[in-house]
Amino acid sequence: MVAQKSLYHPIDIGNVHIDGNLFLAPLAGYTDRAFRAICKDWGASFTYTEMVSSEGLARGSNNTVDLLIRATNEQQLAVQIFLPEASVAQRSLERLLQFNPTVIDINCGCPVPKVVKTGAGSTLLRYPNKIYEIVNTITRCTSVPVSVKIRLGWDANTINYHETTAAALSGGASMITMHARTKAMGYSGKADWPALTDLKQYVQTLSPEVPVFGSGDLFSASAAKEMLEQTGVDGVMFARGAMGNPFIFFETKHLLTSGIMPLPISLEQRIETLLNHLYRLGETRGEDLACREMRKHASAYFKGIPHAAKAKQALVQSTTYAQYEQVCGSIIEGRFLS
Q1: Which residue range(s) make up the domain with 315?
Q2: Does the annotation mark 110 as catalytic?
Q3: Which of 233, 258, 283 is the last residue of a domain?
Q4: Alpha-carbon distance 156 to 177, whole Å?
Q5: Tens-digit pLDDT profile for residues 228-276
Q6: Does 182 map to a domain?
């Protein structure tokens, strides 16, 4: 068991110092700079971009470049890239470094078919040598620390996180994160937290200075505390648990540092954060697109709130700031939550 007083603490990733150990994981379609900014506001120690295509970077894609721009409150930012082999890293690295990433993260865990079929994401779990080559190529060319995000293995018959971790560390990785599921599981079933305990112990024998982070089934502050206590990992990455719930960073930090849960987030705070999120989206997307993109977030902000079905329906039908504001005002007045 890890002593409670040490559960929340700074992290060193290579030559980079991070003030805390509560990270926002990369989430395709969600961790754009508007959402990352909101999570920083609520206490995220460190944030990761959405998956960035190394091939798109190498080709100068404007859509790819847009993913690399920091929010105004992001002094530090990890960029997660996906790629099938080291040669792509070599071709894209110069362009990537122009955006001054704090950490470069290699995605070796995405189970989505359109990523896997390119040879990237979880496909790399089947080829530890490729993980080594990618990490080694980047670390030889830059002093920016490299982190690697893996899974248990391709499926239940090919659990190989020791091999993939050893490959990453041999290549010079400065941090390992594991989502404690296999590629075949996707996001189903239960995450294997005991494997995180084993991974931390394994890395301790190879490279004790390298932090290990855990991911999987972190939907509450108490779950994060339990993972830290039970597994001994150095920090946690919130993924789906942060969707519509940036408050999880504040709640977890409060729980880890005081030993008690803070008061529940009020409806007014939830609404204020939702609208702030919308306006930040609008700064880069414009009002029309921001209102459309906000729909997927808006429903998530009310997940678990009793009698919220009408509120969710009204929000996803909103197409202007004024309509969002009107619906939010009605929610606060209690007209939708009854």
Answers
A1: 267-332
A2: yes
A3: 258
A4: 19
A5: 999 999 999 999 999 999 999 999 999 999 999 999 999 899 999 999 9
A6: yes
Amino acid 111 reads P
Residue 209 shares a structural domain with residue 324: no
CATH assignment at residue 308: 1.10.1200
- Four-CA torsion 260, 266, 271, 272, nearest 10 degrees: -70
Q: Exactly one of 110, 141, 291, 328 is catalytic; which is it?
A: 110
The encoded tokens of residue 179 equal: 């989502």
Task: With CA atoms as reference, report the closest residue to 51 among 74, 21, 31.
Answer: 31
The SS3 call for residue 305 is: coil
Q: Token pair of 126, please?
A: 């089947």
| CATH code of the domain covering residue 30 | 3.20.20.70
Residue 63, pLDDT score: 81
Q: Which of 97-111, 137-151, 302-316 has the lowest mean pLDDT?
A: 302-316
Give the whole-angstrom CA distance, residue 179 versus residue 171. 20
pLDDT tens digits for 135-181?
999 999 999 999 999 999 999 999 999 999 999 999 999 999 999 99
Closest CA to 325 of 294, 304, 300, 303: 294
Query: Strand, helix or coil at 235?
Result: strand
Helix, strand, or coil here: 172?
Answer: coil
Angle between helices 321-332 and 267-285 (to 10 degrees): 180
Instruction: Report how far residue 309's alpha carbon sits from residue 303's, in angstroms, rounded to the nearest whole number.
Output: 9
Euclidean distance between CA atoms 48 and 101, whole angstroms = 10
Domain-ending residue, one of 206, 232, 258: 258
Least confident of 53-67, 180-194, 229-243: 53-67
* Neighbour tally for 316: CB within 10 Å: 15
User: Please, what is the end-to-end C-alpha distance for the chain in angstroms?
Assistant: 44
